[in-house]
Amino acid sequence: MVIDVSVPQLGESVTEGTITKWLVKEGDVVKKDQPLAEIATDKADSELPAPSGGRVVKLLAKEGDVVPVRTVICQLDDAGAATTAPASPSGATAAPHAASPPVTTKSDTPIPLTPRNLATPTARRTALEQGVDIKDVRGSGEHGRITRDDVMRAINNVPRRTEPPMSPALQREVEKATAPEPRVVSRGGDAPAVTQLLNQGGGFVPPIPGLGFGAFNVPAYREKPGDQVTPFTRRRRITADHMVYSKQVSPHVVTVAECDLFKASRVREQHKDRYKKEGMSLTMLAFVVVAVARALRENASLNARVLDDAFVVFKDINIGVAVDSPDGLVVPVVRRADELGVRGIVRGIDDVASRARNGKITVDDLSGATFSVSNPGLKGNLFGGAIINQPNVGILRMGEIKKRVVVVEAADGTDQIAIHAVMYMALSYDHRIVDGVAANSFLWRVREILEKADFEV
């Protein structure tokens, strides 16, 4: 029997993937769960396992093709070599499906090779934001793929979207703002007409150089002997796009709390050797994730995301933990963290961190975070405001843990000086839906949980 192998759902919000490499060829005999192909998405790279053992009858897509999820890209014959023969040099096979179209959906409708299908998701988003018609962009990637860099190069060479006609008063304000010595308008706004221009069409409009925000052009780079130019990797480009998008969309506010980790450190010291013998690492990060999960249950407005004209508060608490990997920073998810104790959190963090470092992270591991925690590691610093991991509305960044002189209250009520482990925690939150009172209450509760150190270890 011929089995259709399709691109699986590669995580929420992922609608397509790029076949970067076929790991088999027509005529090969494969085992169940053997990797058939490597598929790349905007979130991660993953392998497509064989749903059954059998012989590869037909590969219905080429390396470099961009295919929607649930598209049939390969056919297997689970009866083995009895019903099919190896491919001939011309690529034809004896299978009854040899005349199938190159790429098909479940309804067997061919997918047209349109500029949209040939453009990466980041390229399409950039074109939309910049007002570039994607059909006028020439791709430089493999198989004519349109990349973000192609869109950026085309910005000054293709027609923009036609904006609504401006009133005479608005036109005069624009002319003043774009004069050789532009008038700089403060962010508070003293030119309503320019403000009106920036908000035409509703929703968020990024700052427009020369229109009330000053005019600045980045000078061209001139290579000099000894300079090292390193092209962006795919992962670095995705990260860069994500960070820029987050800073443009979310009005970031940062608040900082000082946390005395004296009791939490003692708990860790008492149990870390036992965890080590079991192959797990009991770090302060685990205690912070536990505290964050508890605080989110009590302060649900931080466990949310913004929609077009509304926001949703999630039932599940899924915490993304920033982890370094060979391809750059990734944020795998510990799901339903509020239902896990310290041991469950430690096991979950160790598992996703290990797979991230070994390049085995999957799209599902990176999807569905409702809040994020960032840990700078051993070579951290006092504190820092992290960029929100979209579509979350908050991220907590741990600072360095350092022994400091603190004032504590003795049993008799007097103040005494002691040396304790102290950490500064910085909460970045999205002021569109999170108010200062809610953010401060959440951070205060995280600190209280850590300082009391009431953990079941």
Helices and strands in order:
Layout: E1 2-6, E2 16-22, E3 29-30, E4 35-40, E5 45-49, E6 54-59, E7 66-68, E8 72-77, H1 115-118, H2 121-130, H3 148-154, H4 168-177, H5 192-198, H6 234-249, E9 252-260, H7 262-277, H8 284-298, E10 304-306, E11 311-313, E12 319-321, E13 323-325, E14 328-330, E15 333-334, H9 342-357, E16 371-374, E17 394-409, E18 415-430, H10 436-452
Parallel strand pairs: 12-16, 16-17
Antiparallel strand pairs: 1-8, 2-4, 2-7, 3-6, 4-5, 6-8, 9-18, 10-11, 12-15, 13-14, 17-18
Helix pairs in contact: 2-3, 4-5, 8-9, 8-10
Report on this structure.
26% of the residues lie in helices and 22% in strands. The chain is of the alpha+beta class. The strands form 5 sheets. It has a 6-stranded mixed sheet. It has a 4-stranded antiparallel sheet with strand order 1-8-6-3, with no helix packed on it. β10 and β11 (311-313) form a beta hairpin. α8 (284-298) packs across α9 and α8 crosses α10 (436-452). The radius of gyration is 27 Å and the shape is globular. The two termini are 53 Å apart. Mean pLDDT is 78; it is low at 81-117, 158-163, 180-205 and 208-213.
Key descriptive features of the protein:
single chain; alpha+beta; 10 helices; 6-stranded mixed beta sheet; 18 strands; 26% helix; 457 residues
Radius of gyration: 27 Å
Q: Taking strands numbered 1, 2, ... along the chain, how are they ordered across the largest sheet?
A: 9-18-17-16-12-15
Approximately what portion of the residues adopt beta-strand conformation?
15-25%
From N to C, what is the helix and strand string?
EEEEEEEEHHHHHHEHHEEEEEEHEEEH
Kindly state the number of beta strands.
18
Largest sheet, strands/sense/barrel: 6 strands, mixed
Tally of individual helices: 10
Fraction of residues in helix:
25-40%
Assign the structural class, choosing from mainly alpha, mainly beta, alpha/beta, alpha+beta, or little secondary structure: alpha+beta
Shape: globular
Are there runs of 5+ residues with pLDDT below 50, and where?
A: 81-117, 158-163, 180-205, 208-213
